[in-house]
Amino acid sequence: xxxxxxxxxxxxxxxxxxxxxxxxxxxxxxxxxxxxxxxxxxxxxxxxxxxxxxxxxxxxxxxxxxxxxxxxxxxxxxxxxxxxxxxxxxxxxxxxxxxxxxxxxxxxxxxxxxxxxxxxxxxxxxxxxxxxxxxxxxxxxxxxxxxxxxxxxxxxxxxxxxxxxxxxxxxxxxxxxxxxxxxxxxxxxxxxxxxxxxxxxxxxxxxxxxxxxxxxxxxxxxxxxxxxxxxxxxxxxxxxxxxxxxxxxxxxxxxxxxxxxxxxxxxxxxxxxxxxxxxxxxxxxxxxxxxxxxxxxxxxxxxxxxxxxxxxxxxxxxxxxxxxxxxxxxxxxxxxxxxxxxxxxxxxxxxxxxxxxxxxxxxxxxxxxxxxxxxxxxxxxxxxxxxxxxxxxxxxxxxxxxxxxxxxxxxxxxxxxxxxxxxxxxxxxxxxxxxxxxxxxxxxxxxxxxxxxxxxxxxxxxxxxxxxxxxxxxxxxxxxxxxxxxxxxxxxxxxxxxxxxxxxxxxxxxxxxxxxxxxxxxxxxxxxxxxxxxxxxxxxxxxxxxxxxxxxxxxxxxxxxxxxxxxxxxxxxxxxxxxxxxxxxxxxxxxxxxxxxxxxxxxxxxxxxxxxxxxxxxxxxxxxxxxxxxxxxxxxxxxxxxxxxxxxxxxxxxxxxxxxxxxxxxxxxxxxxxxxxxxxxxxxxxxxxxxxxxxxxxxxxxxxxxxxxxxxxxxxxxxxxxxxxxxxxxxxxxxxxxxxxxxxxxxxxxxxxxxxxxxxxxxxxxxxxxxxxxxxxxxxxxxxxxxxxxx
Length: 791
Description:
Elements: H1 2-15, H2 17-20, E1 42-43, E2 50-51, E3 59-63, H3 64-69, E4 85-89, E5 97-101, E6 104-106, E7 117-121, E8 124-126, E9 139-146, E10 160-166, E11 173-182, E12 186-199, E13 203-214, E14 219-220, E15 232-245, E16 248-261, E17 267-271, H4 273-280, E18 299-300, E19 305-306, E20 312-313, E21 316-332, E22 335-351, E23 360-365, E24 373-378, E25 382-403, E26 406-432, H5 443-452, E27 458-463, E28 466-484, E29 493-510, E30 518-538, E31 541-552, E32 555-556, E33 565-566, E34 569-582, E35 587-609, E36 612-637, E37 640-659, E38 662-663, E39 676-688, E40 691-702, E41 727-741, E42 744-753, E43 761-767, E44 772-777, E45 782-790
Parallel strand pairs: 7-10, 14-18
Antiparallel strand pairs: 1-2, 3-9, 4-5, 5-6, 7-8, 9-10, 11-12, 11-45, 12-13, 13-15, 15-16, 16-21, 17-44, 19-20, 21-22, 22-25, 23-24, 25-26, 26-27, 26-28, 28-29, 29-30, 30-31, 31-34, 32-33, 34-35, 35-36, 36-37, 37-38, 37-39, 39-40, 40-41, 41-42, 42-45, 43-44
């Protein structure tokens, strides 16, 4: 029902062009104006509006115009423009991502696992990485804050924060629509209606809707192209309301994202000789051939799965929605009171297509068979994770004020959530017949199987473990920050101090195949603090030093078969930087160097067996992260801009205990973090009559990424096989903009991405105990056209 409403809404908004054509007068014969300097960028890195160059924090900001021209549709698209940021979409899910900044983050997508990088939408914290990927409709900007943000943003921002800020309703009525079509039948249409002030000068509103769909980019011969890996059908809706009541401003935002499709193909890239030999016999038993290849494949077979409702499916589905209400009251010119209320919920139903093959068949243990063995369907690993649910409520109060030369922010924060997950797994444990005793079979049974099946060397054991868990999380905090800018020094010096006290309470239950149900509860508290000094040594050149702390909450491991609790992680970061502008703001150069001491690292030790994919989490690590970021934007002359960035992260483990007595710090690898990340972009625009032609090219590069910290024969034997190697990307766009069209303006663009057509491994999982490892790969070279019209 909602899908039909959204589709109709997009069409309805687009049809309002005719009605809106006369609602906004636009100049018809004026040439586009080109800026002669870079202008100011406003950010909210310290929870209040400031220019980027005045904030003593390492921040990357992407503006709304840039976002829409680059067709940035989710957080996954941001890292190529921001140094030392990794956002990797996880296999099987349409909405889960692993987010890391400066080497700190979290790869666990469960419904009760805490993030290491906080994601905020209009000031509301998004608690779960499982719902972090959704279509971004009409963003005003994206801010990437690097380093611990524990004072103003709270727990789980130990690596940094990613802020998504939506466009507020416009003062005047207007309609904007955009549509695009690309390779793989990838197309979208979206529209936005701004009502302008509809009740005097008091209330204004906006509504945006989008429909996006595409065929897959890997051909699964078992499905139509609309269900191939990479296929997507998504509906998004965003509503904004703003009321201006004198000293009181009220903003309400609603967002909804419903997506159905088949995640990227998870391809087996390595297997043990035992697993290779067993699954390769599949054709002789009437099954599909076994595919294992380290090179990205274009035509494959991918089996479906019967879900919890008895339906045979290939794809996954997810729904994310949220409400945000912000009240801002200017009590006096020196004091503003603010309230931010958020309610969000998330639902996911995924088919765990992590076998990378069609319908495989092989001999398995079957006590209903006269020979105790029969030929059945076998699978390296698949299942149905559903339902996965989470809802959250948060409330924040702020007081922002100024007394003399001191600016301050005081606040209180409350958060509560409830989450649950049910994961029905299916897997085949492959073993030599003689090895069945290690799986719990007695010797007489093994002898009988050997006698009844002469010549049988290898056999499978089909298992269907059920992993189910859930829990609650409650957090309360008080915080404050003050900045002293003495007027006697012409506001050149700023000294800032801040602190935040947080109390967390968590409960978890473990169910599924665990009987009786196990329950656990843990509480934690933390004090995070900040101290920074900045000084304008000359006009438009600021230097700063900063010490900040943060923490990632502890908890109880949901993947274990017993109550496995672990303590919080803590980080202290030391940062120095320079923010500078030269040549009448035609050259901007920002530099930051840092050293982060990261303690009590939560180390996840993966295991897999007939009980399914399980793990243990221990506070076994201590690491020092150091590096720098450099960002530059230059405008040599009007119409020509160059921008670029370089990021570097060095990871040095001081301790990494694989067992209570085995320290493997000298072997541990950095997780989800390239040592180097580079971006270079160039853009040229030139007026042609009443229009503007714009050409932009972008090159990005990063070094290799590890997805597991260790190369261990019994847990991660294929770690080197699932490295995401060093890779580069080239994209380009040519557009003609501001073409007069009656009383409106039209932009038309032609673009290409992955123009070198690189075949890049993007995410890897080592299922070593099950005998294989797999990975997803990037989308092949794509190209398309789009058009945007405004009235």
